[in-house]
Specification:
Blueprint: H1 2-32, H2 39-56, H3 61-84, H4 92-114, E1 119-120, E2 130-133, E3 136-139, H5 140-162, H6 164-174, H7 176-181, H8 186-211, E4 214-215, H9 221-234, H10 239-259, H11 267-281
Helix pairs in contact: 1-5, 1-8, 1-9, 1-10, 2-3, 2-4, 2-8, 2-9, 3-8, 5-6, 5-8, 6-8, 9-10, 9-11, 10-11
């Protein structure tokens, strides 16, 4: 029993991280029908900003993390303006190529600016504290991750369902052309969407750094791919689906490795197996709905 509970806690922690980042993917896709492949690199940027903020500023760790998340959100707005806004009326393949190019550019700039040598993430001491209950042990950060994900999801849900900006976001996701004709400020809503998505990615990167304290410029590649898979599994464009897809992916990865430890070297491949099965048997995802694709 303790074996199951231990892996359940690990799976909840990892799945919550995936869910947090997958929300950013699904928000952007829900409005623009755009896969922001640079989202994983925005995740990496948030972690590096905390690393350098802890070194070069006198602020406490919590202030550095808030500032890093805000700066990453602003970077998301700049990314949208430079890489995606000029191609808003272009064919989808052009936007896709731009997203891939933005991802490669960020990764190579990160290597140039931050260096390729791995760095230790400055984890606050209390987050590393180990709690033991019987034969089950977990760190404080493993509790913080799902709680933070839940609170951020509730806050995002409140914004989308009750505020005017949230209503505008829902209108754009339903019918982009009609919403633009009804006087909605398209640029402002899209910028806000990228800001929120990038903030969530930054928070995910910070928590990921606290859980796995090693920074490299390519650290966002595999988590970014897995979180994209999580969004697809849940039904990309659906917030609840992104969360459930992330949790499903995290639990599956941890449980399979826990039950079959000899497959640990292949743990990244399980996400792709799940993706293939979903695309074969339910292409719209668990909570997605079929939409007419535009070219």
């Amino acid at each position: 029993m303790s074996f199951f509970i231990q892996h359940l806690i690990n799976g909840l922690s990892l799945g919550s991280l995936y869910a947090l980042i997958a929300i950013g993917y699904t928000m952007v896709y829900g409005i623009l029908r755009l896969i922001n492949f640079a989202h994983g690199d925005v995740f990496m940027l948030g972690a590096y900003l905390v690393f350098y903020g802890m070194i070069f500023t006198p602020f406490p760790w919590w202030a550095v993390m808030i500032l890093a998340a805000a700066l990453t959100g602003l970077f998301g707005i700049v990314l949208e303006r430079l890489a995606y806004a000029p191609l808003r009326n272009a064919p989808r393949i052009n936007v896709l190529i731009s997203a891939i190019g933005a991802s490669f550019l960020m990764e190579n700039l990160a290597i140039l600016i931050f260096g390729g040598r791995p760095r230790a993430f400055p984890v606050p001491a209390f987050m590393e504290h180990i709690v033991r209950i019987g034969r089950v042990s977990f760190s404080v950060v493993q509790v913080i991750i799902p709680v933070a994900t839940l609170l951020l999801l509730l806050g995002l849900t409140y914004i989308i369902r009750t505020t005017k900006t949230g209503m505008a976001m829902r209108a754009l996701s339903t019918d982009y052309e009609t919403a633009s004709l009804m006087g909605i400020n398209i640029n402002r809503v899209i910028s806000f969407t990228f800001f929120i998505g990038s903030v969530l990615a930054a928070v995910g990167g910070i928590l990921y750094g606290c859980r796995y304290p090693q920074l490299i410029p390519m650290m966002g590649v595999m988590p970014g791919i897995k979180c994209f898979i999580a969004a697809v599994v849940g039904g990309i464009g659906n917030l609840t689906g992104a969360v459930i897809g992330g949790l499903l992916l995290g639990f599956s990865e941890i449980m399979i490795v826990g039950l079959l430890p000899t497959l640990n070297d292949y743990r990244d491949g399980f996400a792709f197996v799940i993706l293939i099965l979903i695309l074969l048997f339910k292409p719209t995802g668990l909570f997605g709905s079929a939409t007419k694709e535009k070219v």
